[in-house]
Amino acid sequence: MTEPTSSGPSALKGWLVFGAVLVAVLITGLLLASIMERRAEAAQGQRVLQPIKAWESDSSKWAVNWPREHASWKQTEQKDTKTKYGGSHQYDLLADVPANVILFAGYPFSVDYKQARGHQYAVKDVTDSGRNIMTKPGTCWTCKSPDVPRLMAEMGPAKFYDTPAKDLIPEITHNIGCADCHDPNTMALAISRPALIEAFERQGKDIKSVSHQEMRSLVCAQCHVEYYFKKDEAKGEKAYLTFPWDKGTGVEEMDAYYDEKQFSDWTHPISGAKMVKMQHPDYEVYSKGIHAYRNVSCADCHMPYKTEGGQKFTDHHVQSPLLNISNSCAVCHRWGEEEIKSRVESIQDKIVHGRAIAEDALCKAHFDIAACKQAGATDEELAEVRKLVRKAQLRWDYVAANNGLGFHAPQECQRILADAADLAQQTRVACVRLLAKKGVSDPVIYPDWSSKQKAQDLIKLFGKDATPPKLIAGK
Amino acid sequence: MTEPTSSGPSALKGWLVFGAVLVAVLITGLLLASIMERRAEAAQGQRVLQPIKAWESDSSKWAVNWPREHASWKQTEQKDTKTKYGGSHQYDLLADVPANVILFAGYPFSVDYKQARGHQYAVKDVTDSGRNIMTKPGTCWTCKSPDVPRLMAEMGPAKFYDTPAKDLIPEITHNIGCADCHDPNTMALAISRPALIEAFERQGKDIKSVSHQEMRSLVCAQCHVEYYFKKDEAKGEKAYLTFPWDKGTGVEEMDAYYDEKQFSDWTHPISGAKMVKMQHPDYEVYSKGIHAYRNVSCADCHMPYKTEGGQKFTDHHVQSPLLNISNSCAVCHRWGEEEIKSRVESIQDKIVHGRAIAEDALCKAHFDIAACKQAGATDEELAEVRKLVRKAQLRWDYVAANNGLGFHAPQECQRILADAADLAQQTRVACVRLLAKKGVSDPVIYPDWSSKQKAQDLIKLFGKDATPPKLIAGK
After folding, report:
1. Do A315 and A390 reside in the same domain of the chain?
2. How large is the ipTM?
3. Angle between helices B410-437 and A410-437 (to 10 degrees)
């Protein structure tokens, strides 16, 4: 047996322990340093805030206090992101779906209708729009710039709405930014536009009593809603921005509201029906869906939290969640990005299917009414079918015009599209019967609207002093 | 200062500790006893299994080995459970939706059509059915009893299908039970009916290679599917049970299959259209939905795991998950039972809405075709509209006939119902045009089918030697 000595394996073990302790101390030191650094970064967030003046419309002035939010907000400049049905790429919705040209004939959306892009393009896109928006009232500026609340504070909303859009151009220079949604003193979320506040009031609700989480959707609902330009001669109003929410935000309730007001945006030159253009009832559709039911706000998906240098903040690069799946959807839905994308697209594909059925029936319905007119039907005889096609198209547009292609409330949107197609077909049944009364039994001769160009050329033939194509044989 | 003594607070503390130890020992003893008892119960589950003979159709013979499964299976006797749209209560689907009478005119479903109830009633309900099923081929017995695989083993499937149902009554005495889904030797899930195996083979798939989890749906898919009675004179087949899956299990694929086979179940006496009755394409619809996508099987929701006396086993009380939410839905969806129920019903409400639109359009389409006939249209002239109404109704029925009211694949079902309504309305447009060709421009005079009785009286008028009501004025 060998006796253990101090220079044997026992001494080696001692050195090993000593070495391990050294390494552990080193690692602890590095960790502590890293933690200190992050604390220091975080402390920057607690800097003394610089005062921002009321109605400051220049977002770069807010950047001194909120550099990370400002930097991410700037990213809404991106203009080439694409999802299957959206993104910031300006898809031409008339080329993609030429039926849009027919359905909006006689209305500027038949001339120019593009997928909206980032907030950084708000001023440019409304000024340059092929819809000639600068020939319209100031109301059209309402959602485009933080200069608007400043001007409204100076002029009052009614006067702002009443000023020609063109005359406001010099005053409106900043794109949608900080002042649109935030109080400059407290940085609290704040409603800067009167229409939403007024809509709440008319429904007997106080917008000041809502929760912070609700505000994370309601600041968006200032603009991402259906609205119309209310005229009230008695009050001297010409285009007072109003949300048609008095009976509720469902499509049937808005339809009833517009019927009661006998409101229409334009008269359709093919059918002669008095139409309503739905704008982008994003908030209304969202509020019928599962995400709203689970109290998930707009910001939760479109402006998810982000971390930089130990700081958690809200990503102000507002965009499709499909362009930022890992920070958005995947926070709750723990699947792979490709899988999430394919789930969303499979939902949107079904909406597109239902939308296409409705579009085909609607286009034919407008031409069927025109055919009745050519066969000698009177306005009185056409009153019922014109009402029907208005109701059908309003429903279709409630889904078609909203962002997200029905994803915000898929089942509700599918229900509405089925109703739209059914009502459009009911219009057609009634038209064919009317044609029979006028002695016409041959099928309506539908013209070709299979491309944007063909459709745009076609609707010109239904303009003033133009000769429409013959829709019934022999007449 | 008082010195501590052994009879002071320190002694009291000692007694307290002693007492606490006693209590702890007692509790430990009780826990151990409980664990031992559970082990003993669990050990019962590991009893030596008694042999069960091949094709044993009497489920009570299996009970010796599987007492808990057998006891829960017996509970499918319950006949009074109700959900908003289902349960084991035998809703009268003709009274609830009189349009069913019109749509199935000339077919036994217009006489008697009830919500199915528990497996324990399979033999009784098929024997007593107002659809006179005992006058039909043996094929009608296929899904009703574990005596069927026994008889098929003896006779061969073809001969079984070919024997009149009535002649098999003495042999078929046991309700759907153990032998329908299990191998008696291994208790493994097993396919006992040839139609599913043959459908797999025709698609080039081997049903033996599927996973256990897939089997937990496929044993159900032996019966809960769309099927038809294939006739093949060359093979001497009169009613060979066949799944129309060769092109796929989607509704468009089945439609194409039936068109190619020029198959129809009956000729509709009102429209003269050659119709297909969809049975209950539960598996097909399920396979298009999110639960199937997530690999949740039929059994996971309809036969969730259950624990009794320390034993976990599959609850064989097959029923609507809405009657067992806490063990079924709530295992994954951690919400309150009322909330889960209301979510499911809000989905089903939208399906019922889409179904009602389709039903109204379909009933009118059948009468519109009848009106054309009354106006003198020939079979040749009616060929197109009859094809259209067949396609429309097949789609509607794919959704309407399946259990769960579309819940198994809500978006797919809404898509299909929208198509059904649209196709039915296209039928109507074509009919009105045909009426015009025959000089009829007045609206079709729709008779009243607003109750089961009225609807059943009405369809009799379209029977042989009866005089149908006048559907067009003056004729």
Report:
1. no
2. 0.87
3. 0
